[in-house]
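> forwarded from #structure-qc
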C-alpha cells in the first residue's frame, strides 16, 4: 500500500488521539515504533499492521504488513477513519462553549481534552468483549485480562522487533471451555456471557451491518437481550462502536464522581441530575462523557505522579 493521506480536520488533535490509542503500554495491538504509531487492523481472519505518522496538514497512513491479499487498501483506510472518528463534525459540540454558563463549568474539561476524538472499537464483537471484560473492575485489570486473552488465543504478528496479537474472532471463541477462559482472569459468569455472544456472532456474522441500519432504540433492545449486557455495557458499545453520540452510561462511577467534582456537589448526583446537565448538549452527550472521562483520568494520573 502506498502512503495515503488522511487530511486533518477542525477539532482534531493527533497527539491527543495517539495517547488514547497507546494508553496501555502493554497493549499487544497498538505500539509506538520509530516515532510512529503502528496499529493492528483486523477484518475477520485478515490482519494487517498500519503505521500512522503526523505531518503538518495530514496523517500519513501506510500498511506495513498484510497477512494475505484479502485486505483492500480502501477498507484499511475506512477502518482508520472510523478508529479516529475523523468524519464526525464536532463544530456543533464545541459551539456549546459559546454559552458562558456552560464554558464556566466545562472550560477546564475542554482545555484538557481539546481536539480529542472518541477512539473507537470498529468491530462490534470486540466492543462487546471489552465491555464484558471491563465490568466492575479497574481499567488496569481490564487491560491485563484483554491482553492475556489476545496473547493466548489471537494470531501472532512480528514486526520491527515487536510482537502483536490479534483479537480472537467469535468463531475462535465460541467453542472455548469456561475453565479455559477463567485461566486468563475472567469470572465464571463473564466467561458464560462471552461464550453466549460468541456463539450468536459466529452464527450470524452480519449482526453489525444489520444493526447499523436500525434505530438507537432497536439496537439497545437487541444488545440488552444478551445475558450479561446491561445498561452500562450497552451504552458503552453504542458510543464506542456504533457512534451514537447522544448515548452515555449514566451509571458510570467515573462519570458520577467527575460531575460531582465539576459542580462542587456535596453528594453524588442522581441519574436525573446527570440527564438534566447533559440535556444542554443537544445530541453530543456521548462526546461530553468521553471528554469528562479523559479529564477525570488526567486528574487521577497527575495525583499519582
Amino acid at each position: 500500500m502506498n502512503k495515503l493521506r488522511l487530511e486533518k480536520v477542525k477539532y482534531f488533535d493527533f497527539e491527543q488521539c495517539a495517547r488514547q490509542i497507546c494508553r496501555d503500554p502493554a497493549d499487544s495491538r497498538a505500539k509506538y515504533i520509530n516515532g510512529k504509531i503502528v496499529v493492528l487492523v483486523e477484518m475477520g481472519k485478515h490482519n494487517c499492521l498500519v503505521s500512522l505518522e503526523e505531518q503538518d496538514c495530514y496523517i500519513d497512513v501506510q500498511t506495513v504488513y498484510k497477512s494475505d491479499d484479502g485486505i483492500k487498501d480502501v477498507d484499511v483506510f475506512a477502518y482508520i477513519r472510523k478508529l479516529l472518528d475523523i468524519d464526525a463534525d464536532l463544530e456543533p459540540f464545541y459551539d456549546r462553549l459559546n454559552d458562558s454558563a456552560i464554558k464556566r463549568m466545562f472550560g477546564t474539561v475542554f482545555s484538557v481534552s481539546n481536539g480529542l476524538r472518541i477512539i473507537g472499537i470498529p468491530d462490534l464483537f470486540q466492543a462487546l468483549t471489552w465491555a464484558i471484560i471491563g465490568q466492575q473492575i479497574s481499567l488496569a485489570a481490564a487491560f491485563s485480562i484483554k491482553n492475556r486473552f489476545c496473547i493466548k488465543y489471537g494470531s501472532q504478528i512480528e514486526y520491527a522487533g515487536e510482537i502483536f496479537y490479534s483479537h480472537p474472532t467469535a468463531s475462535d471463541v465460541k467453542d472455548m471451555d469456561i475453565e479455559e477462559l477463567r485461566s486468563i482472569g475472567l469470572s465464571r459468569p463473564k466467561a458464560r456471557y462471552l461464550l453466549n455472544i460468541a456463539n450468536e456472532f459466529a452464527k450470524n456474522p452480519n449482526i453489525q451491518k444489520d444493526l447499523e441500519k436500525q434505530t438507537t432504540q432497536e439496537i439497545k433492545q437487541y444488545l440488552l437481550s444478551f445475558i450479561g449486557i446491561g445498561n452500562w455495557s450497552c451504552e458503552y458499545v453504542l458510543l464506542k462502536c456504533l457512534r451514537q453520540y447522544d448515548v452515555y452510561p449514566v451509571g458510570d462511577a467515573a462519570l458520577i464522581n467527575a460531575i460531582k467534582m465539576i459542580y462542587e456537589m456535596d453528594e453524588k448526583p442522581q441519574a436525573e441530575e446527570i440527564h438534566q446537565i447533559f440535556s444542554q448538549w443537544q445530541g453530543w452527550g456521548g462526546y461530553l462523557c468521553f471528554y469528562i472521562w479523559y479529564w477525570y483520568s488526567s486528574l487521577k494520573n497527575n495525583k499519582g505522579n
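QC bot note: Strands lie at 4-7, 30-33, 36-43, 46-54, 58-66, 156-159, 162-165. The radius of gyration is 19 Å.
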